[in-house]
Design brief:
Helix 6 runs antiparallel to helix 17, helix 14 packs antiparallel against helix 38 and helix 30 crosses helix 36. Strands 1, 7, 30, 32, 33, 36, 38 and 40 form an eight-stranded mixed sheet that branches. By secondary structure, this protein is α+β, with helices and mostly antiparallel strands.
C-alpha cells in the first residue's frame, strides 16, 4: 500500500488528496498528547577536541599521514574561530581530505560522530596529569624529567639530558623520526593547532629532522571543555513488563523535561499503517497539519497493543518480510527499521498483510542453502561484509569501523592498481596468508648417527612390515608397532651440556620400551683442527663413540656413552676420566690415547656434526627433531618429552593412515624419503623468514617518476618512492622467455662490497633451480657513491638495461666473484669480464655515460623507506621486507629456497586471478607482486564466505552500488522480527550513507510462531556524521528517541552497551524500571554515564598450568598504586578491573599475593615482557583483554593462597566496586572484622529500593552490632545512590556499592530480572574482599525481627552456605509446590528445596571448595536450555545440592505468608513478602497487611527523605558525604 502512495502518477494526485481529506474528517477528534522517552549516554571525562581525534584517525592510517596532518593544521588556530563549530569541523575535514581517500574521509566523519578517538586523547590527558603539568602552561615539554613551558629554554633542558633516566614510551606515542636511543627524548604535551603548541612544534621538528633529538608528541588540553562526550554505538530497549504481580511504587514522581531539539517531526521513519508520511509531507506541504493529525490518530489506533490470537501470530515473520519487500527499494531499510524496532505497536496492522506463495517458496528454498552452507536455521541472522562474517553480539561498532577501514585500504589499493568490480572482489576472497605449517630440516645427513633401524634390526623382526597395517582397526590411543621408520627422533646435542644426560636417558627409555621410534644423534663438539680428545671431554666422547661403533655397532656405542654418563655424580660434569675408565673396562686390550688423542683414527663426523648444526639454522642446543620438525624448547624438558613424543606419534599416525589410504605411500617406497620430500622439509630453517611478524612495502600508489633523476626522486613521498623503484627495475630470471612469474625478489646490498656480492651470488645460485622467480637488484652503498667506488654496481645496472636476460645473468655472476672485484680494484677494465653474446658496444656506451642518480635514489629508498643503514643487506619478496640482515648473518641459497617455498602458494593463487585479466606478461608479474604485497599487509587472513548462490528475485532487498567506484559487498540474512533485525536495520541505514555498497538482505523467516516474537521497542544509537544547529554550533549528541509511545503498557528501560562498558544511570528522578507513560506529564529523559571501561584478563600459574584461585591484582598509578583491585577466578583464570582511559600499572596485591607469587610474563599489555610492573594502556572504547602468567617464588612452592589460616585483611577493599563508603570511618570504628554484620542485597526500581531501605532499617533496629551493607550498584537508581550516604550518616552504618560486569564467556541473560538473579548467586567469590569471612544475603522485600548476628554466627556444619527450606505448613498451597513432584522430587532425593530470599555464606569455605567456579560451570551447561533454571537464583544452588552442600537453616529464619501457616508467624525472625501465585496480591498491599511495623518504618523514612529534600533544596547538603569515600575513583 505504501508503495502505491508514494509512487502514484500525477493523475491520481487528486484521489490521494481526497482520501486524506476524508480520513482527516473522520478522525478530527484525535488525542495529540504525544509521550516520549529519550536516553543519552555520556563519558565522565570532558569532551575532547575533534582536531585531536582526527589526528589519531590519521595516525592509524600511517605515521607519515599523522605528521602531515599536524603540520597542515598549524595554519589556523581553533581559538581564532570560537563559536563557529561548523567552520572548525569543515576545516578539519578539508585538511584531512587532502591526505585521505574519499572513502576514508567518509569513515573519518563516522569516527568523529562515534567519538572513537576521544578515549585515546583522554589517555594522553591522564598521562599528562601524572607528570603533572607546570602551573599556567598551555603546552610544555618534558626532557628526561625536566619540564618547561618556555620554548626558549629547550636548549637548557636538553643539556645533560642523557645523564638523567630515559622516559617510558607508550606504544601509542607519536614519534617524529625513527627512534635513536643515543639521542635525548623531548616529549611535547600540547594541543595541536594552538599557538603555544606551534611554537614548540616548529623547534622540535627542526631538531628532529637535524638528528639531534627524539621528538615525541602527546596530546594535552590545558582548558578542557565543560561539555561531556555524547556516545553512540549502543542499544536501548523499552521492554514490556508483565503486570501479573503489581511491583510499582505509589510514590509520585514527575516526568522529565525533554530537550525540544530531540523531538522533531522530520524523522524519516514515517511509515504508519502503510502510509509513508515523510513522502506525503514532501509531496503535499499544503496539508501538512492535517497529515500530522492523521498520523497521530493512526499511531494511537495501532499503539493499543491488544493481545493477538495464536492464529494471528503464526505468519507474523513472513508478513513483516512481505511488508518490507513490497515497498520501493530506497525505502525498504527505513520500513524494516520502523517495523522491527517498533514491532509490538505494529504487529496488529502487520497481521493484515498478504504473503504471496512465490515469496514464501523462495524464502524456504534459500533456508535450505542457509542451513547447508552456513549452519543457519530459520530465525537466525548473519552479516557479511566482503565475505567476512560480523557477529554483532561479539563485535562492537568500533571493531566494525576498523574492519571497514581495513577493507577500504585493500579495495582502494586494488583499485589504484587498475583492478575493479568483480575482479577486485575475486582477489579479495583469496587467503594469501601462508598456512600455519611447521617447517622441518632434512635428516638424511651423514652427521646423524642412527642408533636403531626399525626396518633392519632383528629386535623388530616379529613386527608386521606392511604399510597397510596402518589401516587395521585398533583401540584408540594404541601405538602401532610396524617395521617401518615412520617416526624418527634426532637429538642434536653438545655432550658437555647439563641437559644432555637426561635427554639421552629419555631416548634410551624409548628404545628399551619398544616404542616404534628410530633414534638418531648428532654430536656438536669443538671442530678446530688441533682439538685433543685427551683434553676436551666432548671430542673424547665423539671419538669413543666412533671407536665402539666401528668395533661393534651404533647401538653398543650408544650404550657405552650411557655408561659414561652414569658414572657422573649429581653436580659433576662429564670428564676425560669418566670416558677413559669406561673404555678401559669394556675394552681392556686397547690403547686409549690412540683412540682419543689428536692423531685419532676415530675423528669421523666432528666437523660434519658442527656443519650440519650450522646449516639447519636452528637455535641454541640441545635440539630435538621429530621427522625433521624441531621441538619447542619447553617440550625438551625430560618430564614433558615422553608425553609430547607419544602425542606426536599418535597424531602423525593419522596422517600416515591418510597417505596410505590414498595410495600416496606404498611398500615399495622408502618411508624416510617420502617424509623428507614433503614441501615443509627444507634444507635450512631461518627464523627471520618464518617469523609471523612481517612488514610489507606499499606498492599501490601512482608514480610517474623513476630513479634516474635523483633531485625529483628525493621529493617523492614514501609510497611513491617504492613504486618509482619498482617500476624502474630490470629483472633476471631462469630463462629469457615471456612467462608470468608469481614471485619477485629484490636483493638489496652494496654490490661493490663482498657481503652484498655474496648475497647476490647466493640468489643467482637459487635462480638456476626456479622458474617461478625473477630477481631485481637494489644497491645500498656503504659510503657516499663515486664513479670509483661503484664500478660493479654501475656495470650490473648497465647489463640489466642493455643485455638480454641470459647474457646479463652470466655477466653479473662473473662480477660477483671475488677475483673479479679484486682485479677491478687493481685497475682492470670492466670490458675484460664481458661474456660471449653480449652487445659490448651498447654496454660500453651506457656504462661510460651512466650517472650516479640511480644509486643515490636507491640509497634514499633504503634509508627513508626501508629504514636501513648504509651498506646493510635485505631481501624483499613480493613486497615483504626480510631484513635488514645483521653484518655477519648468513643468508644462503637454502634461505632463498625457504623464502620461495613459503611465498609461492599465495603468489600462485594471485597469478591464477591475474592471468584472467589478459595483460602483458611483465605487467602481470609486476601486478602479482603489488597485489601480493597489498593483500598480505592489509588482509587479516580470515576466511571469506562466498555468498553468490542464493535466490534473490522475490525474497531479498537489493541496493545496487554506484558504478565506477570502489564498493563493499554487504550481505545480510535476517528474520525481521528478531532482536538482530532491530540492531541490523539502523546499522545498515547508517552504512548506506557512509559507503558505496552492493547490499542484499535475504529474509530468513520463522514459520508457525506461537508467541509474540519481539516484546520490546528498541533503538540503536548511531549517527553517520556530526549534526549542527541552525546557528552553526554542534547539536546535542546522539540520542535514543522513543516518540509517540503507547501509554498503557508498563515498560522497563534496558541499555545494551559494548562488552567493555560499565554504565550507570544519573540525573533521573523517574523509575526507569517501571515506566508508565499514562501517569507522566511530558516525557522521560534517561541519562546514563560511562562510569568505567573494563580491563579483562586471564591468569595462569606457569608451573601448574592452572589459574591461581584467590590471587589478587591491583590497578593504579605510580603515585596511587591501588585504585582498584580484583580476585582471579578459577574459571579460565578470569579477572576484571575497572578503569578509565589512561596508562595504569597492574601489580600483584601487597600481602599474600605478592608474598607467594611473582609475575612471570604477560601478553597484550603495553610494557615489554619481563617487568614486574605491567603497564596497561586503556585508549579505546573497544574491549581490552590481557593474559598474565605468574609463578610461585621458589621458597613459597608449598604455600596456598586460600589457606585455612586467617584470611588476609589487607585494609579496605577498593575492588570491583567500588562506589563509596558511608557511615563512620573504619579507622574511627577500630573494629575487628568479626564484629561487623556484612549484608548483601540487590534492588531495581523505586518500589524495591523503598523496600530495601525499610529492610535496612529493620535490621538496624534489632542489633547492637555494627552493620555494613553491600549493594549491587549495577541497577540502583540515581535517587537511591544520592540518598544512601545521608541515611548511613543518620543511622550509623557502613555501606559499599559493589559492581561486576557479567563476563562475556558466561552465557548471557537478556531479561533484567534474570540478570539480577544471576548476580545474587554467580559471583559471590569475587564480589567481596578476602577480608570478609561471612556475608548474609537479605532480599530487599524482607522485614527483619531479630538480631542477624545470631544468623551470622550460626554453625554451618562445614557447608559453604545455609538457606531456609520452603515452608510446607500452608496446606492450601500444596498444588503450587512444584518441588514435590517430577524432576525436583527425583533430583532432591528427599532433601529440602530451599528459598533464596535469605542465605548466609561462609566465604572462606565457599572459595576453598571452588563453589563459585562449580556454580558457574553448572549454570553454563544448564542455561543454554531456555526452559531450565526458571528461578535462576534459587534453582541453581538447589540443583547443585549434591556437589555444593546446603545447610538447612531453622524454619523460623524465614516466614512467608504464601507458604507458611499463621501459627508459625509469631516465631518468625524475618518476614518475606513472597509473591502469591493464587491471589496475585500487589507487594505494597501485602506489606501493609502482613507486617504491622512496615508502615511505621515507611513513615519514618519518608519523613527523613522529606527533610533531606528540603536541605538539598536549601543548598545545605551534598550528594556525597565528605570523609566517607575510602578511595579515589579512576
Amino acid at each position: 500500500m505504501a508503495a502505491l502512495w508514494v509512487s502514484g502518477s500525477a493523475k491520481r494526485n487528486s484521489g490521494i488528496l481526497a482520501t486524506v481529506a476524508l480520513l482527516y474528517i473522520s478522525f478530527m477528534v484525535v488525542n495529540a498528547d504525544s509521550k516520549a522517552v529519550t536516553t543519552t549516554l555520556t563519558t565522565k571525562w570532558p569532551s575532547t577536541p575533534y582536531l585531536l581525534e582526527a589526528s589519531e584517525f590519521l595516525a592509524e592510517e600511517s605515521k607519515a599521514k599523522f605528521w602531515d596532518f599536524v603540520d597542515a593544521t598549524q595554519e589556523t588556530h581553533p581559538e581564532d574561530h570560537e563559536g563557529s563549530d561548523t567552520f572548525h569541523y569543515n576545516y578539519i575535514l578539508r585538511k584531512a581530505g587532502e591526505i585521505l581517500t574519499p572513502v576514508q574521509a567518509n569513515l573519518l566523519k563516522f569516527a568523529l560522530s562515534l567519538r572513537v578517538y576521544s578515549a585515546t586523547v583522554q589517555m594522553f590527558q591522564q598521562v599528562a596529569a601524572e607528570e603533572p603539568p607546570p602551573e599556567g602552561c598551555s603546552a610544555f615539554i618534558n626532557v628526561h624529567g625536566e619540564k618547561t613551558c618556555n620554548p626558549d629554554r629547550l636548549e637548557v633542558v636538553l643539556q645533560s639530558a642523557l645523564e638523567r633516566p630515559k622516559p617510558y614510551l607508550f606504544k601509542g606515542d607519536h614519534i617524529k623520526a625513527p627512534l635513536r636511543n643515543e639521542l635525548p627524548f623531548a616529549i611535547l604535551y600540547g594541543e595541536i593547532g594552538t599557538k603555544e603548541f606551534s611554537r614548540f612544534h616548529k623547534r622540535l621538528c627542526s631538531k628532529s629532522d637535524g638528528g639531534s633529538v627524539n621528538y615525541v608528541l602527546r596530546h594535552y588540553v590545558a582548558y578542557p571543555s565543560k561539555e561531556k562526550v555524547f556516545l553512540s554505538g549502543y542499544g536501548v530497549e523499552l521492554a514490556i513488563k508483565s503486570t501479573e504481580y503489581k511491583a510499582k511504587d505509589d510514590t509520585q514522581v514527575t516526568g522529565s523535561e525533554l530537550n525540544t531539539t530531540v523531538i522533531n517531526e522530520n524523522d524519516p521513519v514515517d511509515e504508519v499503517q502503510g502510509f509513508l508520511f515523510g513522502k506525503l509531507k514532501q509531496m503535499y506541504p499544503e496539508i501538512k497539519e492535517q497529515l500530522k493529525e492523521l498520523r497521530m490518530h493512526l499511531i494511537e489506533s495501532t499503539n493499543e497493543m491488544a493481545p493477538l490470537k495464536v492464529w494471528q501470530l503464526q505468519d507474523l515473520s513472513f508478513q513483516t518480510a512481505a511488508r518490507i519487500l513490497a515497498v520501493p527499494t530506497d525505502d525498504a531499510l527505513m520500513v524494516m527499521r520502523d517495523l522491527s524496532q517498533n514491532f509490538p505497536t505494529k504487529a496488529r496492522s502487520i497481521t493484515r498483510t498478504v504473503v504471496h506463495s512465490d515469496v514464501k517458496k523462495e524464502i524456504e528454498e534459500n533456508q535450505r542453502f542457509f542451513k547447508e552452507t552456513l549452519g543457519l536455521h530459520p530465525g537466525d541472522s548473519a552479516l557479511f561484509i566482503n565475505g567476512l562474517s560480523i557477529d554483532l553480539d561479539v563485535q562492537d561498532i568500533f571493531s566494525v569501523l576498523d574492519l571497514l577501514r581495513n577493507e577500504a585500504r585493500l579495495m582502494e589499493g586494488l583499485h589504484d592498481l587498475g583492478i575493479q568490480g568483480k575482479e577486485l572482489h575475486e582477489l579479495l576472497k583469496l587467503n594469501v596468508h601462508p598456512a600455519e605449517s611447521d617447517y622441518g630440516v632434512d635428516i638424511r645427513n651423514s652427521a646423524v648417527y642412527w642408533i636403531n633401524n626399525l626396518e633392519l634390526d632383528s629386535k623388530y623382526r616379529t613386527w608386521p612390515s606392511s604399510v597397510q597395517e596402518l589401516l587395521r582397526p585398533t583401540f584408540p590411543g594404541v601405538i602401532r608397532q610396524i617395521r617401518k621408520n615412520f617416526h624418527n627422533f634426532v637429538l642434536i646435542i653438545d655432550p658437555m651440556d647439563e641437559s644432555t644426560p637426561e635427554l639421552l636417558t629419555t631416548a634410551e627409555m624409548f628404545y628399551i620400551n619398544d616404542i616404534p621410534l628410530r633414534i638418531g644423534l648428532v654430536f656438536v663438539v669443538n671442530d678446530s683442527d688441533d682439538a685433543d680428545g685427551l683434553k676436551d671431554p666432548g671430542v673424547a666422547l665423539l671419538r669413543a663413540f666412533n671407536f665402539v661403533a666401528d668395533e661393534l655397532d651404533n647401538m653398543n656405542a650408544f650404550q657405552t656413552i650411557m655408561s659414561m654418563y652414569n658414572k657422573v655424580t649429581p653436580g659433576e660434569k662429564l670428564s676425560i676420566e669418566h670416558i677413559i675408565s669406561t673404555l678401559e673396562k669394556d675394552f681392556s686390550n686397547i690403547e686409549v690415547t690412540s683412540i682419543l688423542g689428536s692423531d685419532s683414527a676415530y675423528d669421523r663426523n666432528r666437523k660434519e656434526g658442527k656443519d650440519y648444526y650450522k646449516q639447519t639454522g636452528l637455535g641454541p642446543l640441545p635440539i630435538g627433531l621429530y621427522n625433521g620438525m624441531p621441538f619447542p624448547r619447553d617440550q625438551l624438558d625430560p618430564d614433558e618429552l615422553e608425553t609430547v613424543m607419544m602425542h606426536k606419534i599418535l597424531d602423525n599416525t593419522a596422517y600416515f593412515q591418510k597417505v596410505v589410504y590414498l595410495g600416496e605411500l606404498n611398500n615399495d617406497q622408502d618411508v624416510i624419503d617420502f617424509i623428507m620430500n614433503q614441501p615443509t622439509i627444507v634444507p635450512r630453517i631461518n627464523p627471520r623468514i618464518l617469523s609471523s611478524e612481517r612488514e610489507y612495502l606499499s606498492l599501490s600508489a601512482n608514480a610517474n617518476d623513476g630513479v634516474d633523476d635523483y633531485a625529483r626522486f628525493a621529493l617523492l613521498k614514501s609510497e611513491e618512492k617504492s613504486v618509482a623503484v619498482a617500476d624502474s627495475i630490470s629483472y633476471l630470471s631462469k630463462r629469457d622467455d615471456k612467462y608470468i612469474r608469481p614471485l619477485t625478489f629484490w636483493v638489496i646490498g652494496d654490490f661493490d662490497d663482498s657481503s652484498g656480492r655474496q648475497l647476490l651470488y647466493e640468489s643467482l645460485k637459487h635462480l638456476k633451480s626456479s622458474n617461478n622467480l625473477r630477481i631485481g637488484l637494489i644497491n645500498n652503498p656503504s659510503s657516499e657513491p663515486t664513479k670509483e667506488n661503484t664500478v660493479i654496481t654501475r656495470a650490473i645496472w648497465t647489463a640489466l638495461n642493455t643485455q638480454n636476460v641470459n647474457n646479463a645473468k652470466n655477466f653479473i655472476t662473473k662480477l660477483t666473484k671475488e677475483e673479479t672485484a679484486k682485479a677491478l680494484a687493481e685497475g682492470a677494465d670492466i670490458m675484460e669480464f664481458s661474456v660471449g653474446g653480449m652487445d659490448n658496444a651498447v654496454f660500453q656506451k651506457m656504462f661510460e655515460s651512466l650517472s650516479l642518480d640511480f644509486i643515490l635514489s636507491h640509497s634514499s629508498f633504503c634509508k627513508d623507506v626501508l629504514k636501513m643503514n648504509r651498506g646493510q643487506r635485505a631481501i624483499i619478496s613480493n613486497g615483504r621486507i626480510v631484513g635488514p640482515l645483521e653484518e655477519s648473518e648468513i643468508f644462503n641459497q637454502n634461505d632463498f629456497h625457504l623464502l620461495e617455498s613459503i611465498a609461492f602458494e599465495a603468489a600462485e593463487k594471485i597469478k591464477t586471478k591475474v592471468h584472467m585479466l589478459s595483460i602483458e606478461e611483465d605487467s602481470a608479474t609486476d601486478l602479482i607482486m603489488k597485489v601480493d604485497s597489498l593483500l598480505s599487509s592489509k588482509s587479516k587472513g580470515e576466511a571469506r564466505v562466498d555468498l553468490q548462490f542464493f535466490e534473490e528475485r522475490l525474497s531479498a532487498v537489493k541496493l545496487r552500488p554506484k558504478e565506477d567506484q570502489v564498493y563493499f559487498e554487504v550481505t545480510v540474512i535476517t528474520d525481521p522480527v528478531t532482536r538482530d533485525a532491530q540492531r541490523l536495520s539502523p546499522f545498515l541505514l547508517v552504512l548506506n550513507q557512509l559507503i558505496n555498497m552492493n547490499l542484499r538482505i535475504f529474509m530468513n523467516c520463522q514459520a508457525k510462531l506461537s508467541e509474540m516474537p519481539l516484546k520490546s521497542i528498541y533503538r540503536y544509537v548511531l549517527e553517520p556524521e556530526i549534526t549542527f544547529k541552525a546557528d552553526g554550533s554542534f547539536a546535542p549528541g546522539p540520542v535514543a528517541k522513543f516518540l509517540d509511545m503507547p501509554q498503557s503498557p508498563l515498560f522497563t528501560l534496558i541499555i545494551n552497551t559494548p562488552e567493555s562498558w560499565m554504565v550507570e544511570s544519573v540525573h533521573t528522578s523517574y523509575d526507569l524500571d517501571n515506566i508508565y507513560l499514562e501517569e507522566i506529564e511530558g516525557g522521560i529523559a534517561a541519562e546514563y554515564e560511562l562510569e568505567y571501561l573494563l580491563l579483562e584478563g586471564h591468569c595462569y600459574d606457569v608451573s601448574t598450568g592452572q589459574p591461581p584461585r584467590g590471587l589478587q591484582f591491583t590497578l593504579g598509578t605510580s603515585a596511587n598504586p591501588v585504585i582498584v583491585d580484583t580476585i582471579v577466578m578459577a574459571n579460565l583464570g578470569y579477572f576484571q578491573l575497572k578503569a578509565n582511559p589512561g596508562a595504569w600499572l597492574l601489580r600483584l596485591r601487597k600481602g599474600r599475593s605478592e608474598d607467594i607469587y611473582k609475575i612471570y610474563s604477560h601478553d597484550g599489555a603495553d610494557s615489554p615482557p619481563g617487568m614486574d610492573e605491567v603497564t596497561v594502556v586503556l585508549d579505546s572504547f573497544k574491549s581490552r583483554i590481557i593474559k598474565v602468567k605468574v609463578q610461585k617464588k621458589p621458597e613459597k612452592m608449598s604455600e596456598e593462597l586460600l589457606s585455612d589460616g586467617n584470611a588476609e585483611n589487607e585494609g579496605f577493599w577498593e575492588s570491583i566496586k567500588r562506589g563509596f563508603t558511608g557511615g563512620p570511618k573504619s579507622e574511627e570504628l577500630k573494629l575487628d572484622k568479626e564484629d561487623v554484620i556484612n549484608i548483601f542485597s540487590v534492588a531495581s526500581g523505586h518500589l524495591y529500593e523503598r523496600f530495601l531501605r525499610i529492610m535496612m532499617l529493620s535490621v538496624l533496629k534489632h542489633t547492637e552490632t555494627p552493620v555494613k551493607f553491600w549493594f549491587l550498584k549495577n541497577y540502583l537508581s540515581p535517587t537511591f545512590k544520592e540518598f544512601i550516604p545521608h541515611m548511613a550518616k543518620k543511622y550509623g552504618f557502613q555501606y559499599e556499592l559493589v559492581q561486576y560486569k557479567w563476563p562475556r564467556w558466561l552465557h548471557q541473560q537478556t531479561e533484567k530480572q534474570r540478570i539480577i538473579w544471576g548476580y545474587k548467586i554467580l559471583f559471590l567469590d569475587v564480589l567481596f574482599p578476602l577480608a570478609v569471612d561471612k556475608i548474609l544475603f537479605v532480599d530487599a522485600d524482607q522485614i527483619v525481627r531479630a538480631d542477624l548476628k545470631e544468623l551470622r554466627d550460626l554453625d554451618l556444619d562445614g557447608a559453604p552456605y545455609g538457606y531456609t527450606p520452603f515452608c510446607e505448613s500452608r496446606k492450601e498451597m500444596d498444588g503450587y509446590r512444584f518441588w514435590r513432584s517430577g524432576y525436583w522430587a527425583n533430583h532432591l532425593q528427599g532433601r529440602k528445596y530451599h528459598i533464596s530470599a535469605l542465605y548466609v555464606v561462609d566465604l572462606k569455605k565457599f572459595r576453598k571448595i571452588a563453589a563459585g567456579d562449580r556454580l558457574r560451570g553448572q549454570y553454563q551447561g544448564l542455561s543454554q536450555d531456555p526452559n531450565s533454571l526458571s528461578n535462576l537464583d534459587q534453582d541453581l544452588p538447589n540443583n547443585m545440592i549434591h556437589q555444593v552442600p546446603i545447610k538447612s537453616l531453622p524454619q523460623y529464619w524465614l516466614w512467608c505468608e504464601t507458604w507458611c501457616d499463621e501459627a508459625s508467624k509469631k516465631k518468625a525472625k524475618t518476614i518475606d513478602l513472597c509473591n502469591n501465585p493464587m491471589t496475585k496480591e500487589p507487594k505494597l498491599d501485602a506489606a501493609m497487611r502482613i507486617v504491622p511495623e512496615w508502615q511505621e518504618y515507611d513513615q519514618e523514612l519518608k519523613q527523613f527523605q522529606k527533610f533531606f529534600q528540603e536541605e538539598k533544596f536549601n543548598g545545605q547538603t551534598h550528594t556525597r558525604t565528605e570523609g566517607h569515600d575510602p578511595h579515589t575513583e579512576l
